[in-house]
From TrEMBL:
Record Gene3D superfamilies: 2.60.120.200, Transposase IS200-like
InterPro entries: ConA-like_dom_sf (IPR013320), Transposase_17_sf (IPR036515)
Organism: Catalinimonas alkaloidigena
Keyword line: Lectin
GO BP annotations listed: carbohydrate metabolic process; DNA transposition
Protein name per its UniProtKB record: Concanavalin A-like lectin/glucanases superfamily protein
A molecular-function term among this protein's GO annotations: DNA binding
Pfam family for this entry, one: Laminin_G_3
Transport is among the record's keywords: no
């Protein structure tokens, strides 16, 4: 990947703010304002790193931008030739200058921006539920008689809805302020028994915050999703009995959270969204319950194959395949 930059047409002393991006109209996502400042500081110290050489048509914009409103994602910077245009944030003012000012750093900027890009990779934790001894390297408390079974997605754990439950001595959510949680699961057709099961529950004794993934069964061999998020002073349940899906079938379900927006998905399709202010669940004494609520009720009758937690809001096309 060749990373490049262009100097802004107007500069006021050392007050320079740059807009980053990739060629081919792909944004560079930033995980924090701190990372952004780190990049800016580098460019302030090294405005002409390595000495630029190259052709003017292959460049990226730089801009004067109020980063405070961009919430972790800078405007996309793209080439202005061959039909490309800048895709900007309304809070930013793009500045252009003569193409003759452009010079391209090849090797040095490849190293510089390549390393920056490496720092923006998402962190994911995947739990394949293929045994009862440990999950994700963490100790497990076993209740009832859950069983390891074969599934289309590798081994999974089947819960019979009669006090079957696993409590994992860890929270894969860590203390993320934004996240996506996914599960591959198959609910059995057991209405009216186990009609309101909670199959995934994260909580810590250090906080009242908690997150649950739940379903509701009806008498038509169907179920609908319920995502629940509770913080210190607020909580939100996303549930709609008209958004129905068949029982006895493998499904992908997910919830995500970013900037006070909580969203549910089924089979890679967004279903419901709502506003709630979330306080991250502490890692200290964090636990995960599979197959029931943490307090030993609302049991799930079905199978769970895999759980994945990512510290970003993923696009549905980046979800685990079904």
């Amino acid at each position: 990947m060749l990373w490049m930059m262009r100097r802004a047409g107007e500069r006021n002393g050392n007050n320079r703010t740059y807009q980053f991006g990739q060629q081919h109209n792909h944004p560079l996502e930033l995980s924090s304002n701190e990372m952004m400042q780190q990049k800016l500081d580098y460019l302030h110290r090294n405005p002409v790193a390595a000495g630029f050489v190259g052709e003017p048509e292959a460049y990226l914009y730089s801009s004067a931008c109020d980063y405070a409103g961009t919430k972790g994602l800078l405007p996309v910077a793209v080439r202005r030739v061959n039909g490309y245009e800048s895709v900007g944030n309304p809070s930013c003012t793009t500045r252009t200058s003569s193409p003759t000012m452009l010079k391209i750093a090849t090797l040095s900027l490849f190293v510089l921006f390549g390393c920056i890009a490496c720092g923006t990779q998402h962190e994911s934790t995947t739990w394949q539920l293929d045994n009862l001894e440990q999950i994700g390297g963490h100790a497990v408390e076993i209740y009832g008689n859950p069983k390891v079974v074969e599934t289309p997605y590798g081994k999974g754990i089947a819960f019979d809805g009669i006090e079957d439950q696993l409590i994992v001595d860890a929270s894969p959510l860590k203390e993320y302020s934004e996240f996506t949680i996914e599960a591959l699961m198959k609910p059995n057709d057991v209405f009216p028994e186990n009609a309101a099961p909670r199959f995934f529950h994260i909580e810590s004794s250090e906080s009242v915050s908690r997150l649950l993934m739940e379903i509701r069964l009806n008498d038509q061999h169907q179920w609908y999703f319920d995502g629940f998020l509770k913080a210190t002073t607020e909580d939100l349940a996303l549930i709609d009995s008209t958004l129905i899906h068949p029982t006895e079938a493998w499904m992908h379900v997910a919830v995500s959270y970013q900037d006070s927006v909580f969203t549910t998905y089924v089979n890679h399709q967004p279903e419901l969204s709502g506003a709630v202010r979330y306080d991250p669940i502490p890692v200290l004494n964090g636990k995960t319950s599979l197959g029931a609520r943490m307090n030993f009720r609302s049991y799930f009758n079905g199978t769970i194959a895999k759980i994945r937690v990512t510290n970003a809001v993923l696009k549905p096309e980046d979800f685990m395949p079904l």
